Please model this.
Amino acid sequence: MDDDCTEELIAWVTAGGPGVAAPPAALELQFVPPPREAKAARTRR
Model:
């Protein structure tokens, strides 16, 4: 991780982090969507 990426992460966390502030674009590239079965199980409840 370079200094620019670290600064983006610190700014994101300072703004509220997950669920509050939109993540930086570099971090969004690392997201892995859950499998379809997991999504379906959550919506059936």
